[in-house]
Amino acid sequence: MNNFNINRRRFLQTASASLALSTFGHQGLDTLFRDKPWRVGLIGTGWYGKNDVFRLIQVAPVEVVSICDVDQQLLKEAANLISQRQKSGKTPRTYTNYREMLAEKDLDIVLIGTPDHWHALQAIDAIKSGANVYLQKPISVDVLEGEAIVAAAKKYNKVVQVGTQRKSTPHLIDAKKHVVDAGLLGKISHVEMCCYFHMRANGNPPVEPVPEFFDYEMWTGPAPLRPYDGLPHIRWWRTFMEYGNGIVGDMCVHMLDTVRWMLDLGWPQQISSQGGIYVQKDGKSNISDTQSAVFEYPELNCVWQHRSWGSPADPEYPWSFKLFGEHGTLAGSTMQADFIPYKEGDPIHFDVLYEKEKYPEDVTEDRIELNAAPATRLHMLDFLNAIENKSKPVADIMNGHISTASCILANMSMAVGRPLVYDPAKMVVVNDTEATDLLQRPYRDSWKHPLPSEI
């Protein structure tokens, strides 16, 4: 039996096969499984970089030929694990400079799982090298970075799938189909989104020497160079605005993207936000511990709230969205969804799909999000289908940009203290030169900020 049939049979046995068939169609599905594997490279071999590459290995014939990381210990560990997981058993080539890896120009696909401040430069360079890109969210740390990635994908005609995999989450796909699309909510005129996880790393670790196995200069790249106070990529970097956009950029981007997908929404008409560090004032963290944001659409406000302290407003839905319609409410999270009618009709519950029996290796994988694994597998299949059929993936780069930029604009609104209206055609904040200047962060030293006009 050839590789095509083995892999196709394995896929068709999964619990999510019927969903994938309905998504791709039989002809589209057949194109995913071929005798010649996709040649894959990975930039960023930490937690989520490995998570993404392992999910891809599970569902399609790929050969991970190159991996890159500035941490030589992580790099060595990842190379060993990948050799154990991929069918060929081969150990990928290893690099500490991603540009050297891309210079080989022998990759069909590049997965990017680095910290947020690296996403734009690496995505653009990968696209220019001839690869299609699976880019983790958020796609950028400023708005013009995102515009530049969109321009690069268009110019070089490459598929970019963004890691906003809620669009590929089986129970949320079902909820969209059977509740939102079926009209059970009626007119939807209010949305609430939230995150109440205690996820804001904080503390006062001392400054220390940089270990020999870690290239801190390259890890920092275009971002400001902070005094070294421990390995930043072990969760610590997310607590600093130098490298990302706080909890709004990390968690709101998922829920806003999901709501936009469910309700077919584009750019918000206006964005406003308020918040700050109200409770967790000790420690070095400079991201907000409390923040609200409003993304305004015609007769619809999408409201975000996060707190990294206290208890969640709804313990059943601590990180979630809620769509309020005239006939009922739909609540959704990575774990479940519930339709609650106001008067007529029956409640509907949607459960998360696990595939532990189909993929037993999931159970022993370090730090895996078991609830998200099926979604990531479907997201990878959708990505490959788009490459094969030269079509748009479910989380294409433009939608990833809108969701990312909207969250960045929320942080900008909080910083300047007023609502903002972004004009994507002119790439300016309307009638606000101060805010327009914030659309592009300053880059450090010799690093050059990508601009859409220069792609």
Structure commentary:
With 455 residues, the protein is an alpha/beta fold. It has two domains: 192 residues, Rossmann fold; 253 residues, Dihydrodipicolinate Reductase, domain 2 (2-Layer Sandwich). The protein is built from 14 helices and 16 strands. The strands form three sheets. An eight-stranded mixed sheet has the order 8-9-10-7-11-12-13-14, with helices on one face. Helix 4 links the parallel strand 2 and strand 3. The radius of gyration is 21 Å and the shape is globular. The N terminus is likely disordered.
Arithmetic mean pLDDT: 93
State the major sheet: 8 strands, mixed
What structural category arises from helix and sheet content?
Answer: alpha/beta
Number of strands: 16
Strand order across the largest sheet: 8-9-10-7-11-12-13-14
Order of helices and strands: HHEHEHEHEHEHEHEHHEEEEEEEHHHEEH
Separation, N- and C-terminal Cα atoms: 46 Å
Strand percentage lies at 15-25%
For the record, the CATH class of the largest domain is Alpha Beta
Which architecture of the largest domain per CATH? 2-Layer Sandwich
Give the C-alpha Rg: 21 Å
Shape, principal axes of CA atoms: globular
Number of helices: 14
* Stretches with pLDDT under 50, minimum 5 residues: 1-18, 20-31
User: What is the share of helical residues?
Assistant: 25-40%
In total, how many domains does the architecture comprise? 2
CATH topology of the largest domain: Dihydrodipicolinate Reductase, domain 2
Assigned CATH superfamily of the largest domain: Dihydrodipicolinate Reductase, domain 2
